[in-house]
Amino acid sequence: MAIPSRVLSMADGFATVECFGVERVVSLMLMDEPVGVGDYLIIQSGSFAMEKVEEATALESLAYLETVLAPQAPSEEDAA
Amino acid sequence: MTGALPVEGSLELSIQVTDGRFSRVSILNRRPLSIATAFTGQQAGAAVGLCARLFSICRFAQGLAAAEAVERAGQAAVSPSQRQARQVLLAAEAVLEHAGRSLLVWPDLLGEPVRIMELKTLREALTGLHLALYPDGDWMRPGGGRLAPDQPQLIRRVAAAAQVVRNAVLGGDLPKEISAWADWCQAGTTTAPRMARRLEERGIGAFGASPITALPVLPLDDLNARLAADEGAFTAAPDWDGVPRITGPYARHHDHPLVAALGQGLCARLAARLVELSQALRRLQELVHGMAADPGQPLAAASGSGLSMIEAARGLLAHRVELEQGRVRRYQILAPTEWNFHPQGALPQGLIGRPAGDKPELRARHLIASLDPCVACRVEVSHA
After folding, report:
1. Which of B57, B120, B348 sits opposite A44 (nearest CB)?
2. CA distance B185 to B195
3. ipTM > 0.85?
4. How far does Cα B181 stand from its chain's mean position?
5. Which of B12, B47, B134, B297 sits 20 to 30 Å CA-CA off A72?
6. What is the percentage of chain B residues whose pLDDT exceeds 90?
7. Which one of B2, B5, B7, B19 makes the best mutation probe of the A interface by having the most chain A beta carbons within 10 Å?
8. Is B10-383 in CATH node 3.40.50.960?
9. Domains of chain A, start order
10. Which residue among A2, A74, A79 places its CB closest to the CB of B54?
11. How far A51 CA sits from the closest chain B CA (Å)?
């Protein structure tokens, strides 16, 4: 999923980003354009920022996602 | 398992080891499978654009699967030039995903740093490839976007990607037969032969084999009927003929001479991925020659249903849409990760009862990487 996360702070090649109230630290090492606080990033593999998206596009995507990513019960099954 | 869960979704795997063997596997799928409901009520073209925007991994496959589902619903077909351009995008994405994983995920399994420079070069070459075909960025438009190939740029981008694959991943031509495999593994210094060598050194080259069989080529009508009747259970944990299946490179290439000779475990799956990478790169190099321009043809608002099936990098990707006067009434996506991480599928069947070794989490992570989830994967191993 390409869910834009907003940059809250940056240090030493890493950024703290936030999305839907969830904060996490991601690596900026694969970014090939400058990143600043307030930018929106697409995160892949859980911890790598891969691309920057325009704020208007990001906010539009987040508005859509907010309607479908409301807490949903995940499925869990065991195999033994 | 600690830390914030990725909002993009994740797989949470709880694995139990008893008396030195894997004894239980629990798969918690946190992928946002309801995402397709965002398309309901949208104009078909807008839904396709949204689809391409909301998926960052396998974006071309997702966007084109959406476009083709809409085209089938409207009983429309695109020109041969558009079909060729779409094949270019899908081949480029296969190269990006397979080579990219070898530079991003495999180093972690090898205990080495990520291959940043090579990965950035690969991404720079291939993620913007669509703009060398569709300068307006409308590659996913149903009926075809404005196709105006920039052949020199295409050839330059593909050559740059090929150089990364050769110098950082394959290190030369992949052996076609098992007789040359051992020498290739021993001599190679790039990620692929070193990964194969490491699997053998760790004694897990044959690890992970399971009775789960490959997903066959699915008859369109049969899959359409399953999806039409589905209320969510099938797309969340799909089966075929009543049993879980695997999809992806190993399912597609298990009968290749090299892959078949290596068996069904980790080495065979690695070889299958490399066979696919080699073939996709060759196809890409061939396809970018002789591209022709095409204006595309906007579709009229249609009513009906359409199903598309695309062999994406990780496996079969199916999109199904029901349209009513050009608006989406229902949208469904059946993705490879749900096949390959079925709760009773290839992961639990490949682990349970097998020796856990002295590093069970690493052993499990090798098998997970061979099944290649499209989201982050968290693993917790407990000992009973």
Report:
1. B57
2. 8
3. no
4. 25
5. B47
6. 89
7. B7
8. no
9. 5-67 (2.30.30.140)
10. A2
11. 9
